[in-house]
Each structure stands twice: as C-alpha cells, then as structure tokens.
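Entry:
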Amino acid sequence: MYFDGSLNLDGARRGIFFISPSGDHLRYVLRIYFLASNNVVEYEACLHGLRITIELGVKCLLVYGDSTLVINQVNKDWSCTSDKMDAYCSEIRKLEGKFYGIEYPHIV
C-alpha cells in the first residue's frame, strides 16, 4: 500500500494506492473537509488505507509513505511531540493488531 496526502488552497486530499501480490491495482482518492496540517493529512491517508486493507482481509502489508514524520513515528524511530500526532500514531498501533505482519518503508 502506498499513501500520500496533499494540502493546498482548495483543501486537503489523500490518496491510497494498493498493489496486490498478483499485480492488481486499486486506487482511492478522498477529500478531507476539515482544517488540517500536512502531517495530519498524511496520517489520515495512512489510517484510511489501513482500514481499507483490514476490510479487504489483508494480513501482511508493506505501507509505503513519503512522509518522514509519519514513517519515523510509526516505526518508533521518532517520538511523538504533539498530542495530535500521538493520537494518530496510537490509532495506527490499534490497527496493527489486525495484521500478521506490517512494515513501514520510507520512500522519497
């Protein structure tokens, strides 16, 4: 799964791209209707993607993201320095229990 969030004058959007082991592709684009920072949009994209994979019955997952903050916080390389980021990270931790294996590689 690849996730990305974008923030601009028109609002915030998040995108999720899935590639199955057999090569099938699924794409989701969602709009956020509340004020959000770029980091919040990135976390929202990651969380929404995890929820979709759980609904699809996925048990092993590679979660690729370009957000240095999100990837380093979920990999426990960085601590969460704000309550909002800590809440998002905690929400991801709750969902991780639904998988047999999950990894968060950082992409540039």
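Residues 38-56 form the longest helix (19 residues).
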